[in-house]
Amino acid sequence: QAGDDTLTLFAAASMTDAMTEAAKAFTAAGGAEVRLAFGSSSTLAKQIENGGPADLFISADSMWMDYLDDRDLIDDDSRFNLAGNALVLIAPKGSAMKIDLAKGADLLGALAGAKLAMGDPEHVPAGRYGKAALEHLGLWEAVRPSTVFTADVREALNFVDRGEAAAGIVYATDAAISQNVRTVATFPAGSHDPIVYPIALIRGHDEGMPQAFLDFLGSDAGADILKKHGFVVPAPNS
Prior knowledge:
Elements: E1 6-12, H1 16-28, E2 33-39, H2 41-49, E3 56-58, H3 62-70, E4 80-85, E5 87-92, H4 107-111, E6 116-119, H5 125-136, H6 140-143, E7 147-150, H7 153-161, E8 167-171, H8 172-175, E9 181-186, E10 195-201, H9 209-217, H10 220-228
Parallel strand pairs: 1-2, 1-3, 6-7, 6-8
Antiparallel strand pairs: 3-10, 4-10, 5-8, 5-9
């Protein structure tokens, strides 16, 4: 465990900008310095399982928080859903792509022989939500051969940002941070499970500054930062 003057947060890649701002605000208000580690929720959960130095964890889905809970690695009483998000289809800013994400939509035709970028459904929550949504709409089998699977949601964003993919599936918050992409359409909320970000203290790290930072993130000040970055607060029911 870090000393009282620092604490370490492991958080899903899609939380990068919001948590960078929240950490600065917490420290400026007299809290500890916050060390930040971002990545796919699965990678971070495995690191925590293997003794990674996290005081708190924010997952982009319930599954990877449950994974740690099943191994008795989080403080159960501290867990709550910090925020929600939406799933969107993005394309490069100059692209003429238009599609209504309804059942039977011609997403493959809209790709016009180019690639779709999305997180790997085996490991990345955004990828799992994306696959579920595409299956729900009956589009998965058609577009799967044209899909590039990435290590986290930010990598999918970067593929589209650089023009290396004709479209990508990311969170609404990711789409909002790039000047080079635009949101083509939002996946219907009913096409995938609610997107929630559970947060919890790591077992044995439930006192002092980690608890204070958890409280800060759950406060009105924390909520304002999350909303500013496009997250849904309070989180939807999961």
